[in-house]
């Protein structure tokens, strides 16, 4: 039997595919392209990947199937020649805050193994190096002392951040400890202990006291092991010889001065996902919620007595409350008035109210306006400050929720923001774990290094002879994985970066590197636009990676719009010719030359140069209005000062990791939202943002879904459906039956929707170990409305018929309705004419969702208003033909009197901008500067700009003329 050389697909009818039959060569790099919505993803993911995955799942047991989400059978006659299939999709990183680049790539596992194997501990007092010893080795060394010697096993105790000493003592009692040393003085935990909270104390637990005899070795070993377990897997233990130890007892075994021994270490000791190793405050997340003082002030122009502070902090109506006594007493001692507007009070008084008296006692006085004496009056009390009090309340609820499902009060969370953990400074681990180093660096410092820096560090490492063989094996594995990430263009990231901060393109490239490291052959890989988010300088790296996968003996299928990637493919399939109902056919198939020569191929037109996105003949002049960012220092930004012109189309460019998103999304957008709406967010590090008064609204148009349930659709998002429902409710028959507009809503029960399927039109049946089955509702036959509702018609069309209309059809049908005609016309202009009004928003691609949002904004344009629109890589998922429509929409917004800022790598968008701000010159530590700014022609002349170098080939030598 001959080996099959192609994957054969016959009769694919998934979504908009029109009985597609096609062959894809095996062991080749194949690109599937076509305009947005043409059916590319339906063919690649729903048919090829879906069938491959479904057949694999069919081969496992029913017991295993019942625990795995099953896939529906694709609408296809047959698919032959499939291999085991892996889909590397365009998905953002995991939203779990514990997920990092290191955990996703499994690199952290090797890093933890390296530290457990070859790590050097350090004394917590003097940082003297310590070598690892097992409990048995420590016990053996102790028993070398003369019989009758009394030794104490001790362990240091650290006050938990934000808690008082009494809480720490209670924690120790619950673990069964009885004896402590506080500043060298022996105390019992049986007694109530009073300590000065304003001072730091040296606290040690006395774990055990043993008199050495000839048979104490086993007892001592078990005592050390039990102590390590009871101390949350502590890795440091202190051995004190009562009466003094021989001079050489601690040499080469422990710290000679402070007597700390380093216990045997395991990889989990360096995992922030292990409770015993994680930081007490942030529980291993690296971020914790802290109270933001300005959120406690709701009306700074008012006085404290008139309601300047949040009601939960100080309720002005409680004339006899202890809070009133406290505030009055503070005002008397520190000489300020409760009737002075809050913003006029001195900064020192603000600090006092927020952060307290720092241990200083305040006499509690009876306010003259109170009607009865408060229990606080006559006592002396220290005041902790509103910030510390709110944080204590929050921690109380957090502790309570670990044992019960306690409700987290919104009044506390409303005042809090997520910041870097104040105890571990974002390291996620206990302080003790960070005292273990390899090559002089702890595990957090390695996790923060950029990958190129980390690779150089690992290459320079040397190890002691006793651990060299094992350590070098681990380092080789680390070297391989990190090298692959660098080769694929991710040199600027670090292993500690959170997954939820990683773009879809970056996550896809991380998964690609993982697959290459596996060195599997005979696999089928399906990828979704791996070039997304890459600067033209770096796109070649991704192409080389895909070729590597192919050369290993795999079949690689890529859904892609990038012309460079398409040009490097062995085989190209174009689906089209148009989107939605206008697509679903194979327009052209073959080599690059075949596609170029195909007259009906839209992509071939761009590849051959027959069709181009033209450089604008004129660029808009810069006006007199600017947004000014001063002292931007977020992430890798190097104290950037920048003026951003308004009323023009601006492109923010630069290689990946150069600081574009930090500048625009983290600083500019957040600070403007704070200034315009009082948003409870904190902007990235900067000094000032000026010019907020020059814009009315800040609107971020991203590619997130326009709705998250099946009843959400373009008509509801744009606001068309409200008017359509009004029209149906105004029909004579509807009036006669008493129907109102809401009765035609798919989310309104007991109206005209079909109650059997709740307006979905389908019934979903769960079959345990088989895929869920969707069947057309037997009552409404998929129409979503009841018979009574369907009887109400406008020109012979029911509400169900209208929802099944495309935007093009609806524009003609409602041509006499000004509002509907206007909104539908704009959607049509943006290339969304193929969408049906009732199409579920969950089925829209990211590019389609973004254009729906753009059409919504274009329909709302009002003269005199000035909005700032911000788009981050809007070309994701867009064909060049769709990019032309996107540029049309963006220019309409600017012509309507608004400003548009786009973060983008696509040269056709960059060359169309009025003004470019190019960040760099490199990513990560090598970036964070403004390399060039000006028109595309001006930036193209800047030698230091990577963007400028690529722009030279597309903007020509003659500059575009300024408008006017």
Task: Describe what this molecule looks like in 3D.
The chain is an alpha/beta fold and 964 residues long. Helices cover 32% and strands 18% of the residues. The chain contains 32 helices and 35 strands. Strands 8-14-13-9-12-10-11 form a 7-stranded mixed sheet. Helix 4 (107-118) packs antiparallel against helix 14 (468-487), helix 14 crosses helix 15 (504-518) and helix 28 (846-859) runs parallel beside helix 29 (880-895). The longest helix is centred in the middle third of the chain and has 20 residues, at 468-487. It is globular. The N and C termini lie far apart (73 Å). The relative contact order is 0.10.
Q: Descriptors for this entry?
A:
seven-stranded mixed beta sheet, 964 residues, 35 strands, 32 helices, single chain, alpha/beta, six-stranded mixed beta sheet
Oligomer: single chain
The percent of residues in helical segments reads 25-40%
Low-confidence stretches: 402-407, 957-964
Strands in their spatial order, largest beta sheet: 8-14-13-9-12-10-11
* Secondary-structure content class: alpha/beta
- Tell me the number of helical segments per DSSP (H or I, 4 or more residues long): 32
Q: Major sheet: size, sense and barrel closure? A: 7 strands, mixed
Count of strand segments: 35
What is the rounded distance between the termini? 73 Å
Strand content: 15-25%
Rg over CA atoms: 34 Å
Shape: globular
- Give the overall average pLDDT: 86
